[in-house]
């Protein structure tokens, strides 16, 4: 297969797999709602289910970002790679790709990234989990909507690149 054909296939896979990653994030946002409602009613296992769903929600978003980054560059290294990956999604890679996320979307996502670390400490120390996650539970659908909007714009740009390569 010629390099051009390989690139076309890679970009088409990115669009299809990215849409799947976003679908997983949407499903997990719904799971956050379901678990959180039971947790508010005092169901302790549902509290931990909410933690897991929130962590998994961000992981699904991060899977999408890592897939994009692998297509156009390399995933950051080091102990802050998760943070650097998220920041990088709001930046243009000159000559390679536009920003994937608007700055405001990146800012909305940052608390979900931070939650993963903070939740582990709160669980181990029997800390105030609900206080830690209530804002994230309440905001998860707004974050999904923002990521979806940004993904749709980026996926349209990728499809335009495929169209150019196929000419």
Give a short overview.
By secondary structure, the protein is an all-alpha fold. Helix content is 81%, strand content 0%.
* Contiguous helical run count: 5
Order of helices and strands: HHHHH
Structure classification: mainly alpha
Number of strands: 0
Q: What separation lies between the terminal Cα atoms?
A: 17 Å
Provide the gyration radius in Å.
18 Å
Give the rounded overall mean pLDDT. Answer: 92
Shape: elongated
Tell me about this structure.
- By secondary structure, the protein is mainly α.
- The two termini are 17 Å apart.
- The protein is built from five helices and no strands.
Provide keyphrases for this structure:
single chain, 167 residues, mainly alpha, 5 helices, 81% helix, 0% strand, elongated
